[in-house]
Structures are given as C-alpha cells and as structure tokens.
C-alpha cells in the first residue's frame, strides 16, 4: 500500500479508494440523476389506455431487508388486494464506485438474493432483479406494469431518505401509484422514544425509556412468509451472476444466519474475549436484513440482558443518525471542531496495515484486512489508539473501517468512532485513553488472539512501537484541553 505522503494536506483522507467505498455503501451517497418529469406529451387518456394493457401489481422493493419472513413492508404488501412483484436493484451508482471487485458485501447480497429467488420459485413466482440506476429501474417498471403501489421498509440514512422521496414523487406522477413505507429496521423510531418532544442524546436514559415502553407487540412476528401465495405468478426471470455484475467471490466465510442461543446466554461473560467465539456475529445479518431485529429481541429478551442492551445501542445510533444527520461527516459535539488533528500519513498507514508495534492493535487490523471482521473489544482499542495515541481524525478511521467491514453500517460505525474519539453523543471522556498493553493483558493474556493474526510476532520483521504510550497520552490530553479552552 504505497502512498506519497507529500501529496496530501493534513485534513485530507489519504486513501481515496476507501472513501469511495464508504460513500457507496451509504446507499446512495453518489449523486443521482433526477427522474425526468412527464413532459406532458402523453395525455391522461393515452396513459389510461396503456394501463389497461398492463398487469396491475404492487411492487415490494428489497433493500436492507433481504428475507421473506417477518418482513413488515412485505407483509403489508402481501395483504393488499394486488398481486405483489418482488424487486431488487443492483444499483450501478453504488457498484461502479467499488474498486475492489472482490468486495465481500456484494457477494453476500448476491448470495441472499439467490436464496430468495429459490424460495419464490417454490410458489411459482420470481424476483425481478434490475442492474442499473434506481431511477431507470423504476422507469422500466412503470413501462411494464400498471403499478398501484410501492412498498418499502424505511431507511434512516439521509441519502436513502432523499432517494425514497424522489421515487415516491416519480411513481405518483407517472403511474398515480402510492408509496408506502414501514418501520422494520428498528424496534422504536425517534418519535416513540423522545423525551418531552426531543430525541435523547445520552444512551442510559434512552435505554431506560426503550425498556419501559417495550411490549410483546413491538417484537411480534409480521408473518409475511405465510402469505407467499400472493406473489405474482410468472416464469422465472434470470438473476445476473456475480461475475455478470462485475464482481468476484471474496473467498471469506460468512457467519451463520442462525442465532446461537448458547452464546447469547453467556454473552456477558464471553463478549470481551477476542480469542473465543463469544459473540453471535449477527451484525452483518442485521445490516442487510437477512434476520429480523424483532426475532433477535424476542429470542434474547429472556436470555441475556447484556445482549439485549447491544440491540438497544443499535436502535440508539440509528435514532441519532436519523435525528442528527450532520454526524455523517461532522462531530456530534461542535465543541470538538477546534481540535487540531496531527493526521500523520505514515502513522496512519502503519495503523491500516497492522504495523504499529502494539500487539492488540496490529492483530485487530490484520484480522480486519484478512476477514472483513474485527472483534468489538478490539475495535474500541484500535479506534482509541488512532484518535488518541496518534491524534488522527476519527473520520479517517471510520472511512477505513467502511472500506473493509462486512458488517459496515453507517449509524453504528459512525457512532462507535465518535464514541472512541470523544466527539460523539454519550462518548467516553477525552481523558479516557485506552492503554493497548493493559487491554492486551486483560483480554488476551496468553496471546492466543494475537498469535492467530500476527505471524511475525517476536521476529526481526515485526516493528517497534511507533509511539510511546505515556508521551502520546500527554500529547492527547493537551490537544483536547486546548481545543476545549481548558
């Protein structure tokens, strides 16, 4: 990974590839051409005549909900009076920005699209899979079908909300179709958990409110799988192969979609030990909706309060992103805007490659680079090291994680990085600085995890520490105090 450090200004992120990946997986960060409005040449009479020749349908649009079971918008679509056409769009405005053609996330999505297709074939139906822009996909659908309505599950990223508003307007203008959206990604949206009309900014009172209003209805199943006969009947339509959409298999294993309840039961005891299988690895399935959040809450509620608390954190960060969209590219707390980051490119590259000389940091980064995954305890350590020890802007770290993580989710990734840097909502205090060596002694005392990922440990090729902990800690404290005027 060779980079010329002199070509970058201090505030610039040095890996433009990673930034582009991050933007792509924010579901529509790329600029999208607006759908051209009806030019008025087609009369209403002609439109009505054309509609009579088309099949009257509702569209269910898969996005971050790649499952046929317990799917809120799909359940409501299948209960409607029209037959339902299931749709997925491989959006080229996203895919064209992914320079790594072995991006595991695309493979993961394709795998679950094919699973859905097989299930639909069993009831005589088929997916319509488009490869192109979202705008053009809906133009083609309006041309082929007499669309009565479009059903989607809500997304809370600002770019996704803008995309949905655009499509809502288009289907209304071009087909007089309704656009229905539903809550499915979270248990509670902001309106349910507000305090006196304002969103919570601190997790503890938020979680107390979340738990106090939770009822069985909030996590009951929406049995969309029981209504599959309502899907349209059609010969199978071909789904493009992974290679045909321009990608290859990444060669990394994907975690099981089945929840391991034994791990859930022991989660509070095992979650901080990176050398064992002590976490459920459900994050990627929640990210792409191959599992229902309601199912996880329903099954974990009586098993382990600590595990349930992690699911509440997920709701919390999605609420923050929805209510405070500026956090996507800015500090949640403006008080930290005056912080002067060092942004040393050589040190950033050492961090990226797992060559800082700090064992737990390097093991985590090498695990990430090789597998697209990093244990959560280690994520906190490497994030703290980058932002506190090296004084490198958290946005650089967030972008790098975005380019590598299979389970990349903007709200959780952003929330985690701003927590580590001290700039976010309910973040750790700036003066709390993880000692990587102390963290290693506490959570990997026998070097089991470290030896798994650092093959050159205790050899001449393994680097010496790039920074002294005590000096870095003092430098960090001074920088934060200066920024805050203390």
UniProtKB/TrEMBL annotation:
Residues 40-51 have a biased composition (Basic and acidic residues). Binds 1 FAD per subunit. It comes from Tetrahymena thermophila (strain SB210). Residues 1-51 are annotated as: Disordered. The keyword Flavoprotein applies. The record marks 341, 394, 417 as: Electron transfer via tryptophanyl radical. InterPro entries: Crypto/Photolyase_FAD-like_sf, Crypto/Photolyase_N_sf, Cryptochr/Photolyase_FAD-bd, Cryptochrome/DNA_photolyase_1, DNA_photolyase_1_CS_C, DNA_photolyase_N, Rossmann-like_a/b/a_fold. FAD binds at residues 267, 279-283, 307, 310-317, 407-409. This is DNA photolyase FAD-binding domain protein. Its cofactor is FAD. Gene3D superfamilies: 1.25.40.80, DNA Cyclobutane Dipyrimidine Photolyase, subunit A, domain 3, HUPs. One of its GO terms (biological process) is response to stress. Pfam families: DNA_photolyase, FAD_binding_7.
């Amino acid at each position: 990974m060779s980079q010329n450090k002199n070509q970058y200004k201090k505030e610039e992120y040095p890996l433009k590839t990673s930034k582009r990946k991050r933007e792509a997986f924010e579901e529509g960060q790329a600029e999208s051409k607006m759908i051209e409005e009806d030019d008025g040449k087609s009369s209403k009479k002609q439109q009505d005549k054309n509609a009579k020749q088309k099949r009257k349908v509702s569209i269910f649009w898969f996005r971050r909900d790649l499952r046929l079971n317990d799917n809120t918008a799909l359940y409501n679509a299948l209960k409607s009076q029209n037959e339902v056409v299931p749709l997925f769009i491989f959006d080229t405005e996203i895919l064209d920005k992914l320079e790594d053609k072995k991006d595991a996330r695309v493979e993961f999505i394709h795998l679950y699209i094919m699973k859905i297709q097989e299930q639909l074939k069993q009831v005589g139906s088929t997916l319509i899979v488009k490869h192109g822009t979202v705008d053009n996909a809906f133009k083609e659908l309006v041309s082929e079908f007499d669309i009565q309505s479009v059903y989607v599950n809500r997304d809370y990223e600002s770019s996704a909300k803008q995309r949905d508003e655009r499509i809502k307007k288009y289907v209304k203008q071009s087909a007089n179709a309704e656009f229905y959206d539903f809550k499915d990604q979270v248990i509670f949206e902001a309106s349910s958990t507000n305090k006196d009309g304002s969103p919570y900014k601190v997790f503890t009172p938020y979680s107390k409110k979340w738990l106090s209003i939770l009822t069985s209805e909030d996590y009951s199943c929406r049995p969309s799988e029981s209504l599959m006969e309502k899907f349209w009947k059609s010969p199978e339509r071909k789904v493009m192969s992974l290679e045909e959409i321009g990608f290859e298999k990444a060669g990394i294993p994907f975690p099981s979609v089945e929840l391991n309840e034994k791990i859930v039961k022991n989660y509070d005891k095992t979650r901080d030990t990176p050398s064992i299988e002590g976490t459920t690895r459900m994050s990627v399935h929640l990210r792409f909706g191959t599992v229902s959040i309601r199912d996880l809450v329903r099954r974990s509620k009586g098993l382990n309060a600590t595990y349930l608390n992690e699911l509440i954190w997920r709701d919390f960060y999605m609420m923050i992103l929805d209510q405070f969209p500026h956090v996507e590219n800015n500090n949640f707390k403006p008080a930290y805007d005056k912080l002067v980051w060092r942004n040393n490119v050589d040190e950033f590259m050492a961090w990226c490659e797992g060559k800082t000389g700090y064992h737990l940091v390097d093991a985590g980064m090498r695990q990430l680079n090789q597998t697209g995954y990093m244990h959560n305890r280690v994520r906190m350590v490497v994030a703290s090291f980058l932002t506190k020890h090296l004084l490198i802007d958290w946005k650089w770290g967030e972008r790098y994680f975005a380019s590598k993580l299979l389970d990349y989710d903007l709200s959780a990734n952003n929330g985690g990085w701003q927590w580590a840097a001290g700039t976010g909502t309910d973040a750790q205090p700036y003066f709390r600085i993880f000692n990587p060596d102390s963290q290693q002694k506490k959570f990997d005392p026998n070097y089991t995890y470290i030896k798994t990922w650092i093959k050159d440990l205790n050899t001449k090729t393994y680097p010496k520490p790039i920074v002294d902990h005590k000096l870095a800690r003092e430098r960090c404290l001074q920088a934060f105090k200066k920024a805050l005027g203390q």
